[in-house]
Amino acid sequence: MSSSTTVSTPVAKNATAAAASAAMAKKVQAARAYAQSNNIKSAKYFAAAMSGFILLFAIFHWSRFLYSRFASRGVKNSKLMKGQVTLARLTRHVLNHPAPFFKSIGHALVVIVYLLINIILTVTLDVDWSTQIGIAKRCGWLAFSNIVFITFLALKNTPLAYLIGYSYESLNPLHQAAGYTTIIYSLLHVTLESVYFKKAHHLATLIEEENIYGIVAGSAMFIILVSAITIRSMRYEIFYIIHIAMYAVLLVTVALHRPELDKKEIFAILVAAGLWGSDRVLRACRVLWYSYGNQAILTPLPYGGTRITLSRAPSRAVPGTHCFLWIPKIRLIETHPFTIANVSPSRMELVINAYDGFTSDLHEYAVKNPGVSLRASVDGPYGAIPNFAKVADKIILVAGGSGASFTFGVALDILKKLEHSTRKPTIDFIWTVREEETLSWFEKELAELQSSPHISFFLHTTRPSATSSPAQTQSPGHSTPVDLPSSPIDSEKSHDFPAASPIAGTAPNTHHATFDLDIEKKGTKQSHSRKNPWESSISLDIAPGRPDVSGLIKDVVARSNKEDRISIAACGPASLMDAVRKTATNSISVNGPSIELHCEQFGW
User: Fold this and answer.
1) Which of 11, 102, 551, 596 minimizes the number of CB atoms within 10 Å of its CB?
2) pLDDT attached to residue 8
3) Distance in angstroms (rounded) separating the CA atoms of residues 298 and 266
4) What is the mean pLDDT of residues 163-187?
5) For residues 488 and 169, is the Cβ–Cβ distance under 8 A?
6) Is the dihedral of CA 460, 465, 466, 469 positive or negative?
7) CA 419 to CA 451: how far, in whole Å?
8) Distance CA 431, CA 531 (A)
């Protein structure tokens, strides 16, 4: 009996150990499955939160649109609507004020809410904090989720332009914030997993094929980060090429990093790749379609300007929106965004200011070959611009430098839409340039706009021409050119102008307006008109110094009643845009007119 007992004891011990090991493995497997389930939930909740966020903006956008377009006077005067309008105006008055590092409190709030959603999903849903691998996995899942989100924000053909009234260029700051967040999650994922495997003495796991793809993806993210910080502001074209190349590498390597369908991470990457690929294919098809029989005539203009007249325009092209221009003779594999100045069934016109890269090469070629016709194509149009002709009683257009490409396009489009309309809104057109000769870029547009009795001009130059002479009567002409950013960061629009001079008075149509000006730091004030210094039959009132844009906006608001709708559209240097935004925000009041602000710039 004792012998039998001695023999059976090791067997029993082995069986017990095996059972314990199986139970432990089962427990570990269950823990992993539970963690995987929670990680999948975090991705689903992220998608639901972003969808809800977009839905709120869509409801706000469309309710305001329907109210301004279709609400009767009786509905507007009802107590219920008055309460809602009061609340909306008070909210906009607060949210439109500037905030540190952001253009407004509203923009800062959007980014803060986005970051809070990410943080909450990172630390909740029973994330395993006992080892680095638990939080590493969660960071990986949220990185996957954010890749889809940044891709959606980057789409040129974004449905958000229709849903919430923001085109891709307006969403760019949120795209950047989401991009940095994605990079942080990716680097945390790689770092924490590396620490975990080192502590567990399993560093060899990092050189397994799937993990090597993950390391390559993390490296691509890091390259995007470095290029965004060091290259983007200096050479945008180089940054853009790096950005697109590394994003393509990222999609492929992340898919290979987690290729298993049952783990579901790959579905996020397939969605992102599908969105990005379909957008690229659609854009390529447009470029191919509009390249057929399309020619661009280049005309050099003074002070670095180039006028481009295309023989074919994209359908739905509206002056003030922008398109991507492709001229293979100048850049074979590059397209660049430019504002549409004027459109007709037989042509589309742009005016482009030379900065560096593509725009500089384009201008040099035009100077050497004036009037040359080159093969060209376009992709677009893009941009979400309000229908000012229908939603406003008074319109204020403000431009600095090459930003006039946008305001000229908008003004011409408004006049075209009002030809057969009984509504006749007034338009105040404010434009500040450095050299007076730059005004010749839009000579035809100026002549056409001057023929309208509804437009008042305020033209200023910060470097008056010595050849200017007193203004004479003006003669109407016809329209054409335009100008626009050479990249999503328009270098001219980022420059500031010298010290400004205030406007003391305004005059209808400004055919012979009188301005009170403080010239070049001197206390003397002058009141006179100036004639354009270029060869032209157009006479313009050109005042030296920068106009008091804030004072002009306040004056229009003060002369308006509560039922009036004022639309302010601006495009220009950062200082000018800040002044316009601040003045428009401070002018919003419960008992004042309705004020809408549209700032045309690449970013919020």
Assistant:
1) 11
2) 56
3) 48
4) 92
5) yes
6) negative
7) 13
8) 16
**Tokens at 562, concatenated:** 């509560």
Q: Cβ contacts of residue 4 below 8 Å, gap of 6+?
A: none
CA 429 – CA 435 distance, rounded (Å): 18
Per the listing, tokens 């994922």 go with 189
CA distance 304 to 323: 21
Tell me which residue has tokens 């055919």: 511
Summarize the confidence of residues 556-562 as an average pLDDT: 90
Distance CA 562, CA 590 (A): 9
- pLDDT band of residue 267 (cuts 50, 70, 90) is confident
Residues paired with 458 in a beta bridge: 430
Count of residues in the chain: 604
With a CB cutoff of 8 Å and minimum separation 6, the contacts of 453 are: 508, 509
State how far the Cα of 565 lies from the Cα of 71, in Å rounded to an integer. 13
Task: Name the nearest CA neighbour of 429 among 389, 388, 397, 461.
Answer: 397
pLDDT in tens, 148-173: 999 999 999 999 988 888 888 888 88
Write down the mean pLDDT value for the chain.
Answer: 82
Name which of 74-83, 96-105, 158-167, 422-431 the model is least confident about: 74-83
Residue 556 and residue 563: Cα distance in Å, rounded? Answer: 14
Report the pLDDT averaged over residues 51-67.
Answer: 89
Cα–Cα distance for residue pair 412/275, rounded to 1 Å: 35
Distance CA 53, CA 116 (A): 13
Residue 425 has which token pair?
Answer: 């809104």
